[in-house]
């Protein structure tokens, strides 16, 4: 399933104050690809829990292997095996990628909003995996032609979907609504014969 965003990529949407206790129509999130593979433990070891100031560049862990694929696509991967605090870990790992790929530090309000959208969406996808699929397995982040693709893999069988009707004042249940609103497109990928799924979402840089 996928949904096309009716808003411009620079639209901030809800404030990115962290995961919002999202909910899906049944199950949960999915996965991502250039290969800067690093385990969650390695990311945590370099201070993944500390949020940098706007002017502070975040460096990738020494153990990460950065590759640029044919066509200029860049990919980073983060494993969540046996890790706790996966939402802030995913946000900080994603923030590192945004610094490495030039989305941060931002020089305009639109650029800042686009980066905040990416961080908010990754929080929502990982939170949904925690709530509905016993936690995420891996986060993959791809950057190609000014589009960021987030993919969260999990072992859940449910189908993510915005809760309808959406009620802004209701506590919880806003996660996939936020993803639908902020993203250019999103969807779910399943592999026949393989347990689980990947939930992906794509966001664009401001024009």
Automatic annotation (TrEMBL):
Residues 1-72 are annotated as: Disordered. It comes from the Bacteria. This is Histidine kinase/HSP90-like ATPase domain-containing protein. It holds the Pfam family HATPase_c_2. InterPro entries: Anti-sigma-factor_SerPK, HATPase_C_sf, HATPase_dom. Residues 37-61 have a biased composition (Low complexity). Keywords: Kinase, Serine/threonine-protein kinase, Transferase. Residues 90-200 form the Histidine kinase/HSP90-like ATPase domain.
């Amino acid at each position: 399933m996928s949904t096309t965003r009716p808003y411009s990529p620079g639209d901030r949407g809800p404030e990115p104050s962290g995961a919002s206790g999202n909910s899906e129509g049944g199950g949960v999130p999915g996965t991502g690809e250039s290969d800067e593979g690093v385990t969650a433990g390695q990311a945590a070891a370099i201070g993944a829990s500390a949020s940098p100031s706007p002017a502070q560049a975040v460096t990738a862990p020494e153990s990460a292997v950065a590759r640029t694929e044919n066509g200029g696509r860049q990919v980073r991967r983060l494993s969540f095996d046996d890790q706790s605090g996966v939402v802030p870990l995913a946000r900080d790992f994603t923030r590192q990628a945004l610094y490495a790929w030039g989305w941060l530090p931002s020089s305009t309000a639109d650029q800042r909003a686009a980066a905040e959208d990416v961080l908010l969406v990754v929080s929502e996808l990982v939170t949904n995996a925690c709530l509905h699929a016993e936690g995420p397995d891996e986060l993959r982040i791809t950057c190609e032609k000014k589009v960021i693709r987030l993919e969260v893999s999990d072992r859940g069988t449910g189908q993510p979907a915005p809760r309808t009707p959406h009620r802004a004042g209701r506590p919880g249940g806003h996660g996939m609504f936020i993803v639908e609103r902020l993203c250019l497109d999103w969807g779910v990928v399943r592999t026949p014969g393989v347990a689980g799924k990947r939930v992906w979402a794509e966001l664009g840089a401001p024009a």
